[in-house]
Structures are given as C-alpha cells and as structure tokens.
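Hi everyone,

Forwarding the result from last night's run.
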Amino acid sequence: MAFFLEVLTGGLLTGVLYSLVALGFVLIFKASGVFNFAQGAMVLFAALFFVGFIDLGVPVVLSAILTIAVMILLAYLIERLVLSHLVNQEAISLFMATIGISYFLDGFGQTIWGSDIRRLDIGLPQDAFVFGASVLGDDIFVNELDVVAAVVAGALVAVLAVFFSKTKIGRALRAVADDHQAAMSVGIPLRSIWMIVWAVAGIVGLVAGIMWGAKLGVQFSLSLVALKALPVLILGGFTSVPGAIVGGLMIGAGEKLAEVYLGPVIGGAIEDWFAYMLAMIFLLFRPQGLFGEKIIERI
C-alpha cells in the first residue's frame, strides 16, 4: 500500500508540472480560440533567458524581473508583427502563425544562448522527504521540488481563476475568444487584449520553465514537454484553468501507475503513449473535456 501511494503521489506531483505548461495554452485559447503551438517554445525561451542572466552574474530576483520584461517585450512584438495582421482571419491562419513563432523562438534562443544543457540551481529543494510513515508503518518518499511546484501551480490557478472571472480584462478576454469583430464593435481593444494575454502566458511559461529546468536542466528538450500538455488540455478542457490542473493530475498519476503496474505485463515505455491513448478515449466520449464548454452550433 505504501509503495502504491508513493507512486501515486509522485505521479500527481509530476502532473502538476504538466499543468503549469498547460496553463499557458489555456490562456491563449481563451483569448483567441486558437491552440498556441508556440507555448512549449515560450517555456524554453523564458527558461533560457532566466538561467542566462544568472550565469552572467545577475541575482536571481533581478534575473526573474528581467526575464518577465523580455516576455512582455516578446508579447508586444508578436502582437505587432504577427497577430495584428490576422484579425478576423480563419483560426487555421492563427494556428499556423503560432507554429512559425515556435520555430523562430527555438532558433533565436539557440542563437543567443547556445544549445548546451544548463544547470539551474536557485536554491529550490531537490531532496526527498518521508511522508506518512507513522500512518502506514512504511516510508513514502516525496520529492520536495514536486511539492514546491504543486504549491506554485495551485497559487497560479487561484490567481488566474479570479483574473478571468472577476476582472474587466478577464471578461474582455472571453468576449474576444467568442468573436473578434463583435468584441471590437463594443469597444474592446483587441490588440491590447492579445498583448496582455501573451504576456501573461509568457510569465506562466517562465514559472513552468524554472520548475522543469530545476528538475531536468534547461535544455531544448524542454519544448517537447508541451506535447504532454495536449492530452492534459483534452482531458481538462481547452477553456478551463482548473481543468488544466485536473487534467495534469490525471495524466501524471495515470502514466506513473500504468508504467509501474502494467509495464512488467505488456512492456515498458508506457509513459510515452499512455497520455495520448487516454486523450483519444476522452475525444470519443467527451471531446470538450471534463470542464470544457459544450459547443452547440445552431443554423
């Protein structure tokens, strides 16, 4: 029982890290109705600048502030140079634009900082601690970094949920996602809204990059973490901030348990495909996800 709970806990905490990446996708989708293929590249881009500033001798807090400024500038440039030319265009045009942005960020980041793996050590705890021994009579080891990530993700979800539901900008974001032209007709500044949401998604990407960078090192495979965010979004719903967390927990726990308990029976590497198989099942029976809004089109 203790081993099962240890695997389950580790999977849930890893799922929180997936959720951090998925949050950035949700933000962009809620503001434009388009899946942002570049979110994984934004996670890597932010992490590269953060660790790059630290390597140059800049204090950690100042490095974070400078990186946030870089991500805000990036959001401004994306809006000015790309998105502003695609207002009221087909969703596929915006999606293809995000693919181009993704490849540009990957290449530009490598041009500035190189392609070597960079160790990120900013004092986040890396050790495991014993949890639940007095209750179950056996040790359950939990990684401290995963616990910190869970706390940070929970705080982000709370802030973003309030932001979308209670603030004027949050309501404007939802209006823009429903209909660009209608939102503009009632005075909502579409270009400003897009810049704000891309900046916020960049800051969320920075948090995700710090957590994943501390866990794996800052390397270009970090952008591939975004591929795990897609099943998370399918399970939780593309428009739901809490759904990103729930979907991440389901994916993280499911793939760890499947790897440990089904791996010896049907073979290894279950973690590589389990999330996508679970997402396919959801697409068959509940394509809008657990928390997504059901789309009803009337003619």
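The domain at 2-285 is CATH 1.10.3470 (ABC transporter involved in vitamin B12 uptake, BtuC).

Cheers,
N.
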